[in-house]
Amino acid sequence: MSTAAKRPGLLARVVRRPSGAAAIGWLVLLTAATAGASFTAPRGPLEQDLGHVLAGPSGGHLLGTDNLGRDLLSRLLFGGRSTLLAVAESLLVYLVIGTVLGLASGYLGGWVDWLVTRTADLMFALPGIIIVLVVLSVFPGNLHAAMITFGVLGSPGLIRILRSQTLGIREELYVAAAKVAGLTRSQILRRHVLPRMTSMVIVQAALFSAIVVTIQAGLGFLGLGAQPPDPSWGGLVADASQNIDRDPWMLVPAGIPLVITVIALGLLGDAIRDAAIEGWSVSKMAAPPGRTVPAPRSAEDAVAPVEGSIEPDARALLSVRNLSVEIGGIPVVQGVSFDVMAGETLGVVGESGCGKSVTALGVLGLVPGGGRVAGGQVVFDGVDLAGSPAELARVRGSGIAYVSQEPMVALDPTFPVGRQLAEAVRRHSRADRRTTRAAAHRRVIELLTMVNIPDPEAVAGRYPHQLSGGMAQRVAIALALAGDPKLLIADEPTTALDVTVQAEILTLLRGLQAETGMAVLIVTHDWGVVADLCHRSVVMYAGQVVEQADVESMFTLPLHPYTAGLLAANPHLAGGGEPLPTIPGTVPAPRDWPQGCRFAARCSRVTDACAAAPVALTRPVPDRLTRCVHSQQLLVEGTPR
Amino acid sequence: MAIFRLVIRRLLSSTPLLFMVSALTFVLVSLVPGDPARTIVGQHATEEQYRTVRGQLGLDEPLPVQYWHWLVRVFHGDLASSLFSGEPVTSVLNNRLPVSISLIVAGTVVSGILGVALGLLSARRGGFLVRIVDGLSLIGLAVPAFWLALVLIAVLAVQLRWFPVTGYVPFADDPAQWARSLVLPVMSLSVGAVAIIAKQTRDSVLDTSTRDFIRVMQANGFSPRSILYRHVLRNAALPVVTVLGVVLVSLLSAAVFVETVFAMPGLGSLTQQATIQHDIPLIQGAVLYITVLVVLVNLLVDLAYGRLDPRVRAA
Amino acid sequence: MTPQTILDIQDLTVEFRQGRRTAPFRAVDSVSLTIAAGETVGLVGESGSGKSTIGRAVLGLNPVRSGRIHFEGADITSARPGVRRELSARLQVVFQDPYSSLNPARTIGRTLAEPLLVHRKIGAAETAERVTEMLARVGMPADTANRYPGQFSGGQRQRIAIARALMLSPRLVICDEPVSALDLSIQAQVMNLLADLQSELSLSYLFIAHDLPVVRHLSHRIVVLYRGQVMESGPADDVYADPVHPYTQALLAAVPEPDPRVQRARRADKEAAGATVLSTQPPAATGCAFAHRCPHAIDICHSLRPELLPVPGGEASGGGRTAACHRAADLHPLTVPAHSGITGEEVPCSGNE
Predict the structure, then answer these.
(1) How far away is chain A from the Cα of B248, in angstroms, using its nearest Cα?
(2) Out of 1.25.40.10, 3.40.50.300, 1.10.3720.10, 1.10.3860.10, which CATH number does the structure's domain A2-279 have?
(3) Which of A425, A537, B250, C183 is deepest in the core (most CB within 10 A)?
(4) What is the mean predicted confidence (pLDDT) over A115-135?
(5) What is the model's pTM?
């Protein structure tokens, strides 16, 4: 494996980026040229050429001359020395104070943390340049004092960043594991905390240097830096300002190198940050070398539809045909078809990465992660929604409503829940556009009562963070009910909840369905939820439907080895002490989907026929679909569970 | 009433900042080489004369006591007199304050409006606006305000003569000229701020747009206008307000340069002159004024934050 | 205490400070439990039950307010860092989140070698050999050592985390929700791995999880926690088949049976029994922690905290059963379990075969 080979170092990775290489090139060149100004500069910094005063660029003076005929390039190079020195002084102070206090504060916590953060917060609030001016008024002309002060004043920025990083890392489980492994504090700091910090510190150092360069030039410009006739970058700008009406050109050589240097430091910071992450975050998705990724095929090729299923079912409330979804140009759902009848509950089952949630959101035209519906039909109530923003906008909320997985983040944290519900109510009350405030409020209370919330008046006034998870999920369901939907899409609505709360929510969903007659499409990985709520279910694997049946048939006689394996792996059904029947391997990532059966690599029944070509959905018995070449055999044998 | 309590609490919690800054400047000033009493009495005075002057100046007391006396005077509105002009420091500063406030308020308003608008647009439209904001933020951060000010003068004032080269016209004298005299200073002051605010606005709008509750609202048919302007913007505003506070404080710093370039009689240019002239009482006063401004800015940010985020309000 | 007791926790209480003015939050409230050599004790409870806190207290990652923890006979309640370091060879952990438990910036090999650093001064070759051996044992290929965690799936990372815990051949492994973040098919793989390793290496597990079927499958004994207190404990199959405490009953009743017919029958029973108690009130500090949600609560339940006592007649079902319920005796005549009639336990719990 080439991944096992030694990785290029941080510097190499930075230089490999064009912006990183350019930035480093400029900074190295500048440092060398200014540090060795006695050799590189064409003339002395004070050497006057009174024949060429305020001249533009020429062969003799590459960047022109100032009002005393001094060569601007030479003055720039010699003036850069004080800039370098200033950066070095400030940076040293900044780094020492920043890293020591930042790490101490984050890692030690307690009173050290309290004292350091309070002081840092106070200092952070100060306008730095003003304090530097005070120092300069006390120590006139002492730029060293000024730059050291500036380093001190800048350090709270680094302290804050390192502190929060260290705090974050301290809470990571791998640090807990290292503690359990018996590593000492300093070992943990050295092995786990510091390596994560170095690139961060370098980035901050680059950005801080950029500020120091500007400030040092600013002080020179204000006449507080190097005293004339000694050159400095800021002094050059001041000279230029004196002659602004006679020779505006001088502004260019005086300012542009400064601007380029600051930009270079900024770009360098960005490049280091990106390169540092690149070092270890090699994506799992990256295909190993030597292996070509199969070109995404169109949905039509991949699926040989069962006869009769190609046309949307006119009797169904929702009829999805050949739905395909792409994220970032990669197909993640291919040729998915299913129907939801009015009042029915359909379960979409599978493991993560199989495309269940993407399918559910694809129905609503809301594919996450910048994805899009790439093809197929989504016929709701006789109208195709796929690719029709106007129809989707009409149907969302009033025809099809949606409940998401994490109730605590499903509501806007900045509004009381009652106001969010009222907004939904007003939006969906088509009958009279101007639903009054009082009528909307009545409806909100009615909705909250429907979802069995005790004391709905009080709950309506609360913010989401004041609710428990179960309560928040009830409110989220009330929000979905505001438009009297005919279909509720519930994406793992109980996964984030405790089991007793889950039971309450499942009971609630059942009750609401009986009350309102709405259909439910529920995405879940939990067979218990399927057994409890669903009439029929669809099993998805690697972006495809692999089986579809009414739940009783599916539980008693699964007709796809994946369904069978998934049912058997449930510890609920296994006897204690026996090993659980497992499915080896993992769900393949979308880029690794094979041509043939996508489950073949994990299947115990695999034969040559499985991998040869895409497997079509077939109907071995009425009202059941499966995507397995062995379905007849499975039917005869009766899959052991 | 809750707001009132919050204001009081915030003001109380910012007193350490005022103490720290004043104590720091006081200690720094005490480090000034040379003895003011010796300077006043001159080379040939007797030891007794010298001691008398020292006693009058309070220099024979320990430093904390001197600081205490200074604090008491400050509370009585006495910041001593400028060494250079002999005028009371408070009156000098009070004369200068409106200039700086005009500049900074105008700078904040301009950079706030432009920054948020640009950030929002680039988040919504994407494409070339994204690159403009990125480029602008790189340049806005890299170009120092004093150099930009000079370039603007060279082009817009010297060459094109659209605006006065330098100077400041008080609002009371002529509002139109006041506005005209502020254009170039505000431009040089705001470019960096616009860049920072635009970038933060874009990032936080994009970030908020991908959050779960926004998707839930879209899926349940909330109007796109309401989702963007009520829900996304309000949640995205929190980090923007934080950045706005930091930007405001940095404008106070940048004002030193801009006021100097445009020869505006504000607190910033005053501090610069006082530094060059070693006018210690004036510097102390200016630092105190500027620190109070910082405290007020932070108070405003805190209030805005509490208004936007119910979780902060509860805390 | 029998000689082969590995872990003995007595009256453990853990509190967390929450601000200066409010009283500290009691996450674990006088919990006692023991683990014998080669035994798996399952710790079940919902969020806020304190189950993970107990594990972290044993590992020295949480401060202990009161109570005693003995490991292999030695008191480790507030062991000094040096003692902990020595202890780490015999006491290890597998965490829930396989993404946070491996340092993303270090190769798997370096992560696995970490525990060896502290204990044995061994050479690089020997370390590499041990890493490869451990990886093979958890079913990972040898080239895993040179890769970064970002290149592995959740299930693979959890195998790696298990390998790290086993590097020093520990006696007891605290498994803090080790399979909760995993998909069903992967979860089964990891559970089998844990079971295999236990029998091969004669490990003891403290198995912490919220999923009762998972806990039952791996555990010999189960301890049910609610709000930091032990509600019930006993042999896994007994507790599962015939829960004594109303909370355990509610917990079991809440897990939907993955069989449509069985689940339908259970639901019909439940509906006949009437709605569950939906309470927004916090429990009284003095009484039973579950009283506010308990359908059987009587006055004493709200005023007096029940002690954890042997279940009357528990010997009939193998012994070792305890419950903290004032009404254990009159609600639960163990001799006639089918008539408990509260949540429908007459339905066989282990499938329809």
Answers:
(1) 10
(2) 1.10.3720.10
(3) A537
(4) 84
(5) 0.83
